[in-house]
């Protein structure tokens, strides 16, 4: 059993070859990919599990409310030339009509 990297539950269990799952949050992960993260390499994945890199284009998959704006960032909005950062909001970008902002990688998919 391995602890879940997402919710820190100690009940992660072996699912298949090189794949573990968490019964509490449903997260699935490959422990070999976590080793890359621990070596100082920033690993950011989109909502589908695809690796993101600086300069990629992504598409917003859900309407995202923006404080101080008249409306949300609509689902389907394409965001070009992203920059990856560490932290909760791990994507820095510019969105037409909204300006510079930070997004969470769980609300985008690779274009």
Comma- or semicolon-separated keywords:
N-terminal domain of TfIIb; 7% helix; 30% strand; 111 residues; mainly beta; elongated
Descriptive overview:
This is Phosphonoacetate hydrolase. With 111 residues, the chain is mainly beta. The protein has 2 domains: 40 residues, N-terminal domain of TfIIb (Single Sheet); 54 residues, SH3 type barrels. The chain has 1 helix and 11 strands, in the order E-E-E-H-E-E-E-E-E-E-E-E. It is elongated. The protein starts with 12 loop residues before the first strand and ends with a strand. The mean pLDDT is 86.
Number of helices: 1
What number of domains? Answer: 2
Q: Give a short account of the largest sheet.
A: 3 strands, antiparallel
Distance between the first and last residues' Cα: 35 Å
CATH architectural category of the largest domain: Roll
Compile the SSE list and pairings.
Blueprint lengths: L12 E4 L2 E3 L6 E2 L1 H8 L5 E2 L5 E2 L5 E3 L17 E2 L3 E2 L6 E5 L3 E5 L4 E3 L1
Antiparallel strand pairs: 1-2, 2-3, 4-5, 6-7, 6-11, 8-9, 9-10
Keywords: Hydrolase
Protein name: Phosphonoacetate hydrolase
Family: Belongs to the YjdM family.
Short description:
InterPro entries: YjdM, YjdM_C, YjdM_N. The chain has 111 residues and is mainly beta.
């Amino acid at each position: 059993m391995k602890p879940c990297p997402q919710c820190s539950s100690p009940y992660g269990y072996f699912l298949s070859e090189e794949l573990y799952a968490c019964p509490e949050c449903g997260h699935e992960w490959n422990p070999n990919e976590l080793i890359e993260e621990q070596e100082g390499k920033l690993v950011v994945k989109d909502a589908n599990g695809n690796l993101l890199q600086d300069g990629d284009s992504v598409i917003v998959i859900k309407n995202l409310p923006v404080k101080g704006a008249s409306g949300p960032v609509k689902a389907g909005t394409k965001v070009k030339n992203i920059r990856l950062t560490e932290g909760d909001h791990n994507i820095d970008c510019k969105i037409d009509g909204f300006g510079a902002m930070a997004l969470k990688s769980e609300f985008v998919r690779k274009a």
